[in-house]
């Protein structure tokens, strides 16, 4: 299969195989006992569909066990990370949607590999960093009821 982009990272790699205005689709591989940075995005939300391996996803203050068939929703501005807890490669498909789609839209809050945070892109975040936990869930629920 031909990819639009392939990038290797300390935790594994990703392969972008589809992108158009407002959406991209990637295949992400996380090495055993590795994890991505604790991060958030100001311009995109993501859905992760797990196809192999096992791990723990963190979304705001929730820990979610994942395995093949699991789906995790990462709302815009949510603090998140994924870690591989197994002996085999953790593989998931990421579908990202948003007004600006770029790898520069990463605010790293903690990183096992000491990588710096990317510069923030123009435009205000839709919610402040401190809006996590119960308050963020109430805000999300109130938005879906209208």
Helix-strand layout with pairing:
Elements: E1 5-9, E2 12-20, E3 23-30, E4 38-40, E5 44-52, E6 55-59, E7 62-66, E8 71-74, E9 80-84, E10 90-98, E11 107-110, H1 133-145
Antiparallel strand pairs: 1-2, 2-3, 3-10, 4-11, 5-8, 5-10, 6-7, 6-9
How would you explain this protein's 3D organization?
The protein has 146 residues and is mostly beta strands. The chain has a single domain, classed as Jelly Rolls. It is 9% helix and 45% strand. It has 1 helix and 11 strands, in the order E-E-E-E-E-E-E-E-E-E-E-H. Strands 1-2-3-10-5-8 form a 6-stranded antiparallel β-sheet, with no helix packed on it. A 3-stranded antiparallel β-sheet has the order 7-6-9, with no helix packed on it. A two-stranded antiparallel ribbon has the order 4-11. A hairpin with a 2-residue loop joins strand 2 and strand 3 (23-30). The longest helix has 13 residues, at 133-145. The termini are far apart. Mean pLDDT is 87; it is low at 123-132.
**Arrangement of strands in the largest sheet:** 1-2-3-10-5-8
Helix content percent band: under 10%
Radius of gyration using CA atoms only: 15 Å
**CATH level-1 class:** Mainly Beta
Q: Please give the CATH architecture.
A: Sandwich
Task: Tally the structural domains.
Answer: 1
In CATH terms, the superfamily is Jelly Rolls
- Please tally the β strands and state the result: 11
- The helix/strand series, from N terminus to C terminus, equals EEEEEEEEEEEH
Number of helical stretches of at least 4 residues = 1
Provide the low-confidence segments as ranges.
123-132
Overall outline: globular
The CATH topology corresponds to Jelly Rolls
The multimeric state of the shown protein is: single chain
Distance N to C terminus: 42 Å
Mean pLDDT: 87
The biggest sheet, with number of strands, parallel, antiparallel or mixed sense and barrel status, is:
6 strands, antiparallel
Structural class call reads: mainly beta
Strand content bin: over 45%
């Amino acid at each position: 299969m031909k990819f639009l982009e392939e990038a290797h990272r300390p935790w594994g790699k990703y392969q972008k195989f589809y992108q158009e205005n407002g959406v991209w689709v990637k295949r992400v591989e996380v090495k055993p006992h590795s994890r991505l940075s604790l991060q958030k995005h100001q311009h995109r939300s993501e859905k992760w569909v797990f196809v192999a391996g096992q791990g723990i996803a963190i979304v705001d203050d929730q820990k979610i066990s994942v395995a093949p068939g699991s789906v995790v929703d990462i709302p815009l501005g949510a603090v998140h990370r994924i870690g591989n807890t197994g002996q085999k490669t953790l593989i998931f498909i990421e579908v990202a949607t948003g007004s600006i789609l770029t790898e520069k839209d990463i605010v790293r809050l903690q990183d096992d590999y000491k990588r710096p945070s990317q510069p923030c892109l123009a435009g205000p975040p839709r919610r402040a960093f401190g809006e996590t936990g119960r308050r963020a869930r109430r805000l999300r629920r109130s938005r879906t009821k209208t």
